[in-house]
TrEMBL record:
Belongs to the TonB-dependent receptor family. It comes from Salegentibacter echinorum. GO terms for molecular function: siderophore uptake transmembrane transporter activity. Residues 569-696 form the TonB-dependent transporter Oar-like beta-barrel domain. Residues 1-17 form the signal peptide. This is Outer membrane receptor proteins, mostly Fe transport.
Amino acid sequence: MKKLLLFFLLISFTSLAQEQKYSIALKGDSVKEALLKLETKTGNRFFFIDSWLDGQLRIAQNFTDKSLFEILQVVLEDTYLNFYKYKDKIILTRNNLIYDKLPKGFFGTENDTTQNEITKNEAIADSEETGFNPIFYNGIQSSATNQPIKTVTIGKEIPGNSKKRFSLSGVITDKLTGEPISNLAIFVKSKNIGTITDARGYYRLRLPQGANLLETQSLGSENLKTRVVMYNNGELDISLNETYEELGEVFLETTNDDNVADAVTGSETIDVEEIKNIPLVLGERDILKVATTLPGITKAGEGAAGYNVRGGRADQNLILLDDAVLYNPSHFFGLFSALNPFTSGEVNIYKGSIPAKYGGRLSSVFDIHTKNANTQKFGGEAAIGPVTSNLSLEIPVMENKAGLIVGGRATYSDWILKNLDEESLNNSEASFYDIVAKYHHSFDENNKFQATGYFSKDKFSLTSDSLFSYQNRLISLNYERKFSEKHEGKISFSNSDYKFKIDYENDLKDNFESGYHINESELKLLFNYRLNDKHRLTYGVSSKLYMVDPGEMEPLGNDSDITALEIPREKGLESAAFLSDEFKISDKLLLNAGLRYSVYAALGEREQRIYEPGIPKTASTVLDTVSYGNNEVIETYGGAEARISARYFIQPDFSIKAGFNNSYQYIHTLTNNTTVSPTDIYKLSDLNTKPQQANQYSLGLYKNIDNNMYELSVEGYYKRSKNLLDFKTGAKLFLNENVETEVLQGEGKSYGVEFLVKKTRGKLNGWLGYTYSRSLIKSDSEFNEQVVNAGKYFPSNFDKPHDVSLVANYKITKRFSFSANFAYQTGRPVTYPTGKYNFNGAEFVLYSDRNKFRIPDYYRLDLSFNVEGNHLLKKFAHSFWNISVYNVLGRNNPYSVFFVTKDGKVEALQSSIFSVPIPTITYNFKF
C-alpha cells in the first residue's frame, strides 16, 4: 500500500520528468520572469498569486536539455513554492504539496466521527503505512473571545520528508516601539511545549509537523494566539501591542533558560529599564556602575575611571557602542559612565568565553546597543537631578519603517564645587556633556540600515593653574541583509576618536598645552548561517586601522619659554578572520567552538631603535636606528585564537559549563598611577613592544529553582597572561619618544571563583554576588633593573580578594518600592615607606616591596525609595521619582593613601571621594 500511495503522489513529478527536454538561459531573472519564460518556451500555463513571487531572489543559470521538472526544481529551490502538473497546467502552491490521494484511514472507521484535524495529522504522521503525511487544518478559527485566530504557514513541504518535528524561531517586538520583548512566554499549551524570549526578544521552539496553536503571554504585552502550520523549519517574527491590563502571574516550565542553557561561560545581560531602581551616586542611572555589582567586575576604587574584569587591567576591556569602540567610558572623575541609559537598549557582557567575532582585548567585551526609535509615535524620556539632566526623544521619520532617537546629558556640577567648605576647591570646575543619535531604516523585512553618532566632552580643574579635558567621538554605519530564512549578514563601518588635553597657565613663563590623540577605523563583515537544527554558524572578517599620537607639548602664549615637542605618530593594522559553530551534539550537550586568526602589522612612517638582544633597553645599548616609510611594515604579530565552550544538562534546570579562550591585544595603556586616568598614554605594539596575550579556563555550575524564580551559579576561572607592560621605578612615561626604555613586559596570572544568587520575581527581587579572586603580576630577569619584588609574583594595583555586592528591591505596592545596594571590597594594594636614610647630607625614604600593604577595606550602603506615577493609559507622561541616599553609613572609604614630607617628617595622608551620606532626589518622566 505504501508503494501504491507513493506512486499516486509522485505521478505528476514523474510525468514532468518524462517530458521533452528544454534549453533556456536565465540571466539574473526574477522567479516570476523565469516562470513566464518557461510558460512561453514549454506551452504550459502557470497558475500562481503574484504576491508569492515578491522579493529580491534572482536566478542566473543556463539549462541545456533539461526537463521542466528539473528546471522548476532549481528555480523554486530557495522559495516556499511547490508545483503540481495537471495536463498542460502547472499549479504553484505556497508551503504545501498537492496530493492525488488521501492516506488510508484518513476518515477513520464508520464509528469514528470525532477525530479533529490535529488528531488526524498526528495519526497520519505516525502511520507506518504511508510515505507522505498530508496536513489538513481549518484556516480560520475563533478564540474564546470570538476573535479570529490567524493562521501562518511555516517552511516548505518536501516530498518524502520523514521528520516529525521542525524548528520555529523568531523575534518578538513591541508593535509601537519596535523594541524586543524579553522574558515573554511563548508556548503550545496542548502539547506542553514552551520557552521564553531572551534579552533580544529571540525564541526557538521544536514543534511537531502540522497545526499548532501558538500562544504568547506576558505582563505588559497583549496575549496573542496564532495557528502555526509547520511544514519545515522556519521563522516567525511577532509584534505585540502594549497593554496595561492587570494579569495574573504566568508560570511556565522550560529548559531554554539562557543562564542554564547557553553554552557561553561568564556572560551577563543587564536590563537597562530595571536599573532605575538601584540607588546610585547623585541619582544618576548608570549602566556600567550596575555592572560592577555583578561577580568578577570591579573598579580599582571609588572614582576610578576604568573597570577590572577577572583580574584584568582597565585597558583590556573592549567597550562597544553599536560596534564602535568607546575608549573612555567615564565622566566626572569616573563617578558616572559615558553611556546614556535612556537611549541604551541591550547590554551584553562577556567575561569568560568571548565569542570569536570579538577580538583585540584580553579580559572582556561590553557590547552595548542603542535602541531603535518608535516609528509610529513621537515620544521621549527625561530626568532632572541635582547634578545632571537627561533628555531623549524618539522621532518617527517614516511610519513603520524609519525613526530617529536622540539623547543628551549635561551636568551643572560647578556650583557644588564652588559651595564646598574647602577653600582650595572654590576655583575648581568640573562639567561634562554627551550626545547620541541613532537613525534606523527598514527598507523591507530583508534589508535594514542604521547609523549611530556619539560625542562627549569632559573638562575639569581642581587647581587654579591646570585645566584638563578629554572627548570621545564615534560613528557607526551598519547594513543588514537577510539572504534567506537561514542566512543573514551585516557589513559595518566604524570610526572612533579620543583626545586628551591639558592647559597649564600660571604667573611664570612655563605655560603650555599638551595632550594625546587616538583614532581607529574598522570595517567588518559578519554572517550568520543556520545550517540545520544542530549547527548555527557565525563567520566573517574584519580589519582595523589604529593611529595613535602619543603626545605633544606646545607653548601657550607668546611669553612661554616651553619648547615645542611632538612624539611621532604610531600606526598599526589589525585584521582577523573568524568562524564559530554552535553545535547541538545532543539534547543535553551543546558545544560552541570558534576560531579567530588575527594578524597585526606595525606601520611607518616612524623610526625604530635596534637594541642589543638579551640585555636591558637603554640609550647605551642602541645598535642602530632604522627609518620606515609611510605604511611600510615595521613588524608583524599574530596567531590563532581558540574560543571553545560547552554546556551539559545534568537536569533540565541544572547544567555544567566549561570554556577556554586565548586572545591577543595589540594596544597598551602606559601608566604609573594606581588607577586608570585621562593622563594615561596609549602605545601600539611595534619592534620593541610585543602584544599582550592571555589564556583563560573557566568551569561553572548553573541551577534554576522554583519555576526559574531563583537563579544560582558558581563559576571558577584561571587566567595566565604575558607581555604585560609595567613601569620601572621612577619611570618617565609621558612625552617620552623612547618609552620602551622605561617599561618592562612581564607575566600575570589571575584566578577566582564567582557566586551569584538572583531572585527574578515576587515583591522582593534582586541578587547577591560574591567573588574571591586574585590578580598577580611578575617581572623577573637576570638584570636587577628589570626585577620587581625579587622576581616573585606580587599583587596588581587592583587585586582585591573579597568582593560582596547585594542589590535588592522590595515592591510595597505597584507604585512604591524600596531599594538597597550594599558593597564590600578588600582594600587594594599600596606601597608604603618603611624607613628613611641619609646620604650625602640628604634624607631619602626607603619603600617596601611594591604593593606589599593594603589600604583599609571598602564598604558602603545605599538606600532609595521609588515612586512611580499611576499607570493610566491616557496621560501625557508617566513619571518616576527616586529618593536616594548614597553612603548611608557615612563611611570614610579611602580612595588612595599617599605620603608627604612635612617639617622633616614623612606623613601618611588619605583621600576620599564621599565621606558623608549624599542624599538626592531625581524626577524622571516618560511621554
